[in-house]
Queue: 3 jobs
Job 1
Amino acid sequence: MKMRAPHIVPLSVQAVAILIRLKPLTGHGRFVFPSVRTNCRPMSENTLNAALRRLGYSGDEMTSHGFRSMAATRLNELGWRADAIERQLAHAESNKVRDAYTHAAQYLDERRKMMQAWADELDRLRRGAEVIPFPHSA
């Protein structure tokens, strides 16, 4: 984590199921996705960006960090509280006075529900989201 600060990450049922399926492939190391150079460090953001380039996405179309931005935008649109979203993304409070009162707030119960709802939303989109037609303008 940034600044070596601990960060609790609630996982959805779907995420746990994926991790269980990955365990035979990743072994019993510290990281699920270790660096290609050493299993003492996690995979880098550049590795994910390189994978996106190999899949055909340009840097203008998608980056690994773009998934965080996309999730934050959609979670806001779905009505989740900004405080819970920001904490899930490990963002620090920029308002120092507010931070003094909320620095220990983890919003874990809400974040658990939010992450399950997010996984369910991704499953819904994967199955084929409802397409809402727009009326044609004259």
Job 2
Amino acid sequence: MDQTLNKKNDEMLRHMSIKKLLITLAIPSILAMIVNALYNLVDTLFVSMAVGTDAIGALTIAYPVQLIILAIGLMLGVGSASVFSRAFGRRDLETMKKAVNTAIVLNVLLTLTVSLITYIFLEDLLIFFGATEGNIDYARDYILIILIALIPFSLGVMMNNLTRAEGRVRIAMWSLVIGAGFNIALDPIFIFDWGLGLGVQGAAYATAIAKTSAFIYIFAQALSKKSSLAIDLKHIYKIDLKAAKEMLLVGLPSFARIAMGSVMIIVVNNLIKNYASTVDIATMTTEDIATMYQSIYGVINRLLRFALMPGFGLVQGMVPIIGYNFGAKKFGRVHEVMSFASKLLLAYFTFALIMIMFFSPALFSIFTKGDEAENIEQFINLGSSAFRIVALGFSFITYQVILSSGYQAMGYPLRAFIVALSRRFILFIPFAYLLTHYMGIDGIWWTFVVADFVTGILSYIVYKIEMKQLKTRIVRI
């Protein structure tokens, strides 16, 4: 066991001061998440500059496919990392090995299946996703290229979670930095006319190359002697059914959360398409209004991702600490890290809300193009107003994020599943249909606030109960 177990990380997770440990693990994750979210922004910015704001809507239409693949990667990544972390805490090398090898095989099989289904039914899927005449061609061009890189993309996401679980957060950070760096560097070369001039297709090629490069780096690091992941390439085809069942159950809430994000995008795009006729803009047709609002939603999605990612990076730093110490039955350390992380996360989300209130118009003005002068003012005003409304619920999601991630790290899949689904499915979709019926497209933006507020209050109550139960376990020991 000692040949594979990284003793330095073992000691760090078991004995380092919780506050110092959380900051140590969170900072690389936060930086990586910021860089990763930045490439999404830059990708969208370059496409809007080279092709126009209609193309932003196309990226939004194509996004559900990428989210499903991301959901698979996170499901297996979080699930296997939870199994791995608890085994790491017990120093159970055999279970650690089974978790990693099984996750790799399942990832390839599931991602390949989704890729083939998407390719075969692409046209029907685009219509189902809410594509308009103004963006369907762009969306088709983008997805057909992205499909070729979905397996390394999903594997890269999964390996990133496992790498953090063994305590090698810098490696996990650099894999995301490499992917984002390649994407940002290649985007202008592939997109603009002074380069290859491929437009939306160029953005897809840049993304495919970047995701593949990130996977190659992190997989190579996982095969090194410094890693505790113990990947067995000679027997990689072997699947441990018990490990597979556990990681799928534990990871299912992550899949549900991201997959429901995909469903949410589809619902919003279709609601925009259906209610565009209720918006009166003299210079625009109903079809143009729908395309513009889908582009506004696309920008909001990417700005939200950028604004929230540092918070999610903080939580990623928390997860291996909870998983390891829960497996080692050090419940006092679990309680301490959840308490400290929740305070930091609440402070950050509040700060993000304040920044959006001040800078929303300036942010939206970045995503406009000179030859669309007659519609620029509408795009900025409507978009910045919508973004401010959506951001009102930021502070309320703090305890939902803490609970969902904490439950997964501790191996409580059902609890994590319920928490993950509450905001994006149980509450959001019914409220979206209800509020758009009475408020039109503006009802979509207020749905975010209502769903965040209700989920936030319920999550806070459950969080307080769970923290009391952790204290009880400390006393028993």
Job 3
Amino acid sequence: MYVVDKSDTDTRVQAYDKIWVKHIKSALMENRFRLVQQPIASLLGEDKGMFDVLVRMLDEQGNEVLPAEFIAAAERNDLMKNIDRWVIGASMSFAANRKASCIFVRVSKETVLDKSLLPWLDTQLKSLRIEPKRICIQVTEDLANQYVRQTKELAENLRKLGFRFAVEHFGTGRDPLKLLADIEMNFIKIDGSLMQGLSTNQIQQQRVKGLVEVAKRKGIETIAERVEDANTMAVLWQLGIEFIQGYFVNAPEEVTISGER
């Protein structure tokens, strides 16, 4: 029965993927991907013009499709590199058309392992003529832990080109302090799960404070993810966090690049 069930599941996944691969490829060819921006607010009082960007796909009727619906199929069918490059390119155009000091762009495993990324980025920089420090490439803590050597190499090569580097969803892995020691980064984005109940949880506060203190000693700036209320924001300020993002700051909004509308 187990073999039959697994075979049936595999068949369903293949059928599901066949549909989504067709949609993803046509969306890439027809430029039906869109960026949405979410501001990152400073707790130090000064707006730094920092944004996190997320990707959305539009279907043939122009309806928004969330990443949760198509990313898994893209990962299984080697399409993430193509999506990542679209997102990076669109983010660089966004930076060229707006006075944003830093735009955070998340990339997948395929991009971390992609040897052709750096030459492509160099070409993009020359074409768009933006300051590379305005783009911060980010990977998840989980991905960085799985591919420490490749992530370290990517961070070093990005720094040589002038880009910045961040690790997001930080602080819940097996040894976040070792990751801070192994990989040079400009920012850590402390995982949103650590924000839940933070205002009343002393143990969690100490955990976040410890991450902040180590990061500061290494000259790494700190951002708290998924901040949803004023009490959490007040505690984060006391703990020394420099930036916050989440629905308390602002919901994601569609990016308008000059000339699109």
